[in-house]
Design goal:
Shape: flat
Number of domains: 3
Radius of gyration: 25 Å
Oligomer: single chain
Helix content: under 10%
Number of strands: 20
Order of helices and strands: HEHHHEEHHEEEEEEEEEEEEEEEEE
């Protein structure tokens, strides 16, 4: 299959001791090795992502925090690289830095300290910073809660009638809604959708609700037995009677650095968004692990295809078992790409497919980068 590539993100993980990769490590096949043709420096330009920059220096981009000497707080706040700055590779120490080798503070790894006045919001500092990933790819999934727990929409406001009895509502049409708005005026419209099943247990772990569009309150009900009037602001899919309303969430702040999970994680691909059977670069998939399992924003996993179990037709030993007396042998699992988790629910998470050399399929394994594939 054609190799997929993506200029996407930097995968990151701070080692428990904050150790950087050294030249010795880089030369002995360490997973945190620098590329043999890594440049001495890179001038950051608008449009770069941390993944782009990482890929210019490192064999495995998730080693980025180790070669910067980052700690957890640094990982939580990636807003420190801006267009126009220069990233230097100090070959002597095996570190990356914003300070030219021999001139910076080795204890900080070149990460600048920014002092803010008390009245300035820290979120504003990072507006021009190089992002971890291109936000346009996942932006709709950050603001639309497309995964809901069982019965998660049951008590939400609902469309109970339409303008002039229309079956389908369009932009600027009126929708009549019943339910507690809880003071809200702007809502997203959803329809309970496909159950998502754990590929291992076959149990339903969540439901993927279809996002239909947005509505805005036009006239609130005056009495308990009156309906609220809403105007349809935007339509992505057909909406009508029975569809449910959820408040429009605040604009998300992409304030994180991707990193492997703190503890070993073994997940499976649950679904490919859009109802298709396979995914490639920059497509969205869900996994059967969530916040309850220690997954958080920016968690990085490697994708594996489980090796098939085949019959060894060349084995003629008397103790062989299986078809026609031949021994059954499991082929090795194959690592073929990376996954970056950008939205986390209790039992399930969404991830962006990265750097794959094969298509992603439901049931494939997603594991911590420093683990082997499942037995």
């Amino acid at each position: 299959m054609k190799k997929f590539s993506t200029a996407a993100l930097i995968l990151a993980f701070a080692s428990a001791h904050g150790l950087a990769a050294t030249n010795d490590e880089a030369g002995n096949g360490s997973r945190c090795a620098f590329l043999p043709n890594a440049p001495d420096q890179h001038v950051v330009v608008r449009g770069d992502t941390l993944w782009d920059i990482s890929g210019k220096f490192l064999k495995h981009a998730w080693c980025w925090p180790q070669v910067w000497g980052m700690n957890k707080e640094d990982i939580r706040n990636p807003h420190w690289i801006y267009p126009g700055q220069i990233v230097y590779f100090d070959r002597k120490t095996g570190r990356l830095s914003l300070n030219k080798p021999g001139t910076g503070d080795a204890n900080t790894g070149g990460i600048p300290t920014v002092r803010l006045e008390p009245q300035i919001r820290t979120e504003g500092l990072g507006k021009l910073a190089v992002p971890s990933i291109p936000s346009g790819v996942i932006e709709p999934f950050l603001s639309q809660p497309v995964v809901v727990e069982e019965k998660g929409l049951n008590d939400t406001p609902r469309i109970m009638a339409t303008q002039e009895g229309r079956v389908i509502l369009g932009k600027n049409d009126t929708a009549y809604v019943r339910g507690d708005l809880k003071g809200g005026t702007s809502f997203q419209v959803f329809r309970p959708g496909t159950p998502l099943k754990d590929p291992v247990t076959n149990a339903v772990i969540a439901y993927e609700a279809a996002y239909l569009g947005t509505v805005k309150l036009d006239r609130a009900a005056k009495t308990p037995d009156e309906a609220h009037s809403f105007k349809v602001v935007s339509v992505k899919q057909e909406m009508g009677v029975g569809d449910r309303l959820l408040p429009v969430p605040p604009s998300p702040i992409l304030n994180y650095v991707p990193h492997p999970p703190e503890k070993a994680l073994d997940a499976r691909i649950v679904s490919v968004y859009g109802g298709v059977s396979q995914a490639g670069q920059n497509q969205i998939v869900s996994i059967n692990r969530g916040q309850k399992d220690g997954v958080d924003l920016g968690t990085v996993l490697e994708l594996y295809r489980l090796g098939r179990v085949v019959i060894d037709k060349t084995d003629n030993s008397s103790w062989s078992i299986g078809s026609f007396g031949k021994k059954q042998v499991k082929l090795p699992d194959t690592q073929y790409g990376s996954l970056f988790v950008f939205r986390v629910f209790d039992n399930i998470s969404y991830g962006l497919v990265m750097q794959v050399t094969d298509s992603v399929q439901v049931g494939d394994v997603a594991k911590s980068p420093d683990q082997e594939a499942a037995d």
